[in-house]
Amino acid sequence: MSEEVMVTNPEPVAESSTPNPSESQVKKAQDAAVDSFQEVVIRLEDLEDEAEYSNAETDVLMNLYNRTMNQITEGEIVTGRVLSRTNNGDVIVDIGFKSEGIIPRDEFSPDEQLKPGTEIEVFLETMEDRDGQLVLSRKRADFIRVWENLVNKFNNDETITGVIARRIKGGMVVSLQGIDAFLPGSQIDVKPIRDFDSLIGREKEFKIVKVNHARKNIVVSSRVLVEKQMAGKRERVLDGLEKGQKRVGTVKNITDFGVFIDLGGVDGLLHITDLSWGRVNHPSELVKLDQELEVMILDYNEKKDRISLGLKQLQPHPWENVDKKYPVNSVIKGKVVSLTDYGAFIELEKGIEGLIHISEMSWSQHIKHPSQMLQVGEEIEAIVLNIEAVDKKISLGLKQLEPDPWDGIEARYPLDSIYEGTVRNLTQFGAFVELEEGIDGLVHISDLSWTKKVRHPSEIVKKGDKIRVMVLGINREERRIALGHKQVEDNPWDAFEANYGMDTETKGKVMRITEKGVVVDLPLGVEAFIPNQHLGLPKGKKPGEVYQDGQEVPAKVIEFDKENKKIILSVSGYFKDKERAEWEEYMAKQGVVKNTIEDATSASSASGAEESTEN
After folding, report:
1. I want to staple 261 with a disulfide (CB 3.0 to 4.6 A). Which of 9, 249, 400, 486 is the partner?
2. Residues 6+ apart with CB under 8 A from 69
3. Alpha carbon 361 to chain centroid distance?
4. At 544, is the secondary structure helix, strand, or coil?
5. How far is 457 from 581, CA to CA, in rounded Å?
6. Are 608 and 561 a contacting pair, CB within 8 Å?
């Protein structure tokens, strides 16, 4: 037995190799000692007139006296006779020795009758202690007799009645006729013990399963007796098991994954998934310890030592006729039982759950997580959108309880109409503008400005700005509205064509310098581009070394593309027909040394300027 705690009993007694004398033998020895003593007395009376004894006579007397002592041995149980009691209650006992022994009163029970002449069994610890006293013990004598009885019970495989005295680590202490024995917790019963303290003071039948003679320890079990009683019943239960059979059992143990049911000496597992058609977080929500349940036998292995049970199988399947109970477009009531990133699960009844996808929660709000709208445990209403009975799926909608703001959208926002909206969000490709709650349109980055090459919408608008937009298109099926910001104003490129035609000379301010050239802002607010080869750069110079932001640059229009909204300029082309002195004077103003200036006319002779990705 692996589980064992030693219970210490009174100090072990050294067992004598000499067999204990029977009562008749002890009595016979005592009678012989008395006869010998009387013989000595007679001889003494015959010699009482003599003053001294001879050596031979003295030896005879001593031999006769010693013969009265040779029947008593230390470490044995002997029969003694109560002579009297001392003032403090100790008992004086005569065992036929040369002196009497004194046994403390606490070794006797208070109600025990100890009149002079009463014979009792005592244990002879020693004939003489350091004070020459005979040392006797009643407790040790009782312990030895009880111990012998318990060992006999163990050897004969008999049961014994004991009282559970107290609780200790690992089990209980049981009193067996005054001797403490250890009862391991696992050996109390076949069922788990939940209240050990309730067992204290209870009398039960036990089986001695282990004896340690050296330490005088005993281990007992009551479980082996229970198992023996249930053995026949267990066989009958196993023989009668059938799949689909209904049985009544008792809840024996509850775990996170299920419930163990005692079917009458046989345990079965009721898994958490077989407790209810509905969602179960923990089995303790539905069952309690020691509760009687009717269950169904679902399966078992060949040895029938693993039995699977079901509880929900005793109830009709909830998905039967689900489409009749919850028809499409009907309004249902349910409880929110779970939230995920993509939606919320709603329990319509035990075993039936529907999903409200995050896209079906609101017409107007941009829901990032269902917790923005719902909470677990909340009772809500929803509309049945679709049922897939085979796959056990129900799609629900929350926003459908409110009118769809996209109904009649074309009538409210006709094409080319102009409205004021609020910038709600900016992306790399444009700005989302809210026209009304639930209705957003997109202003593409290309529709933000007629004149600027916009790299990001934040260059034109900011989140929260109020801007005017024109409705360019509506796609009701995809719920999209295309808006334009620049279309609110007239297209200025007609005016640009008149002012910036081919070979027109103009001036512009440097806005930014790129790898391929310089972007300038012309007087009418339109951007133009000057490629590197048209900047008239001296040999070895880079654009950033000659031109700076905000600097005014004279140039000639060498390309005007109204369709693609592109204007290309040339600085070298501007000075092509000018006097060299003018050219040198302009470049000198830019800090370029005169003798480094090269004739740039060759660079401008190329009629086609390279187009930049900036335009």
Report:
1. 249
2. 33, 97, 98
3. 31
4. helix
5. 45
6. no
563 touches 525 (CB < 8 A): no
Whole-number Å distance between alpha carbons of 348 and 370: 18
- Specify whether the CB–CB gap between 100 and 83 falls below 8 A: yes
**CA distance to 551, 596, 602, per residue, from 547 (Å):** 7, 17, 21
What pLDDT does residue 468 have?
Answer: 93
By residue count, the chain amounts to 615
Q: Which of 490, 482, 493, 485 is nearest to 449 (CA)?
A: 485
Q: In the structure encoding, which two tokens stand for residue 354, read together?
A: 């529907």
Q: Residue 64: is its pLDDT beyond 80?
A: no
Domains and CATH numbers, the chain: 23-142 (2.40.50.140), 240-314 (2.40.50.140), 322-401 (2.40.50.140), 409-488 (2.40.50.140), 496-604 (2.40.50.140)
Helices (H), 206-310: 223-239
Q: Are 432 and 423 in contact (CB under 8 A)?
A: yes
CA diameter of the chain: 183
Residue 536's CB is within 10 A of a number of other CB atoms, namely 28
Report if pTM > 0.90. no
Give the H or E element holding residue 61.
Answer: helix 55-67
452 CB-near residues (< 8 Å, 6+ apart):
459, 460, 527
Alpha carbons 196 and 204: distance in angstroms, whole number: 14
Alpha-carbon distance of 541 to 570, in angstroms, equals 17
In this structure, of 31-35, 99-103, 152-156, 464-468, the range with the lowest mean pLDDT score is 31-35
Tokens of 456: 């990001």
- Rounded to an integer, what distance in angstroms lies between the CA atom of residue 571 and that of residue 555? 4
pLDDT in tens, 479-490: 899 999 988 887
Number of C-beta neighbours around residue 207 at 10 A: 19
Mean pLDDT of the residues in the chain = 80
